[in-house]
Please model this.
Amino acid sequence: MAWKTFPLRVTGIEMITPTIVCLSFRRDDGEPFEFIAGQFINIHFEADGQPVHRSYSIANPPGSDDIAVAVSPVKDGRATKLLFGLEVGDVVDASGPYGRFVLRDDEPCRYIMAATGTGVTPYRAMLPLIEQRLDEGFTVEILLGIWRREEALFARDFEEFCSTREGANFHACYSREMPDDAHPWEKNGYVQLHVAALDPQPANDIVYLCGNPNMIDEAMEMLKAREFPTRQLRREKYLPARS
Ligand SMILES: Cc1cc2nc3c(=O)[nH]c(=O)nc-3n(C[C@H](O)[C@H](O)[C@H](O)COP(=O)(O)OP(=O)(O)OC[C@H]3O[C@@H](n4cnc5c(N)ncnc54)[C@H](O)[C@@H]3O)c2cc1C
Model:
């Protein structure tokens, strides 16, 4: 496949947890970059003399020239090596945007948006749209699954958003280590268990799932047993690349 790539220049690098880096980019060819909240880009590079690409969800809302992605390191990962070695001013090849993991024209309902790790970034990009939906009578539950508090990327953004808006709740779900001083929005256990605890119902809910494929499969199984139609289940699996 011939990809239509464009150059992205690194404009910012921030470690947002002890292991996850948030990289900010701008197009370096002067062209605008338009996307829908929830979409991803591909980063293209060479590894062992072969062209490869990796996908990353866009973590900021549309409406500016910025493109931010949050990258979680993978041991011996080829993109991991490239992306964690970048410096401000470096240029990488990218393509996109891609993906249909976006908000659709739904009737007011409860959105249950669950993620593991960097899978929460599409929901961060959606926050302004979610705000509009709250005004239209929707409600939203945003659930982030990570091992422990220090890995809760963008938790402050979600907590601030949800604590100041009617009908929005944030849950940070820790599968390995619960802090002694936990806030009410911090929960113990796997994120999919907390999705189930919300008692999802096809009559009222639309469920978004993003990140770890095992989490998504387990949640899908539970939701299908509850007779959710496919159109009310939206998912983005962060599957490892084949090359
Ligand atoms: C639509 C989409 C969106 C994505 N968005 C993001 C994002 O926003 N942030 C982000 O960090 N990642 C995201 N990913 C995953 C990302 O594209 C890469 O797969 C990831 O960064 C690893 O690439 P790598 O080249 O470093 O590792 P590779 O060189 O591909 O893998 C190295 C080794 O680790 C294994 N491996 C790869 N991934 C994992 C894993 N998750 N767990 C355990 N073993 C693994 C591989 O099988 C291989 O053996 C997304 C994936 C998809 C499909």
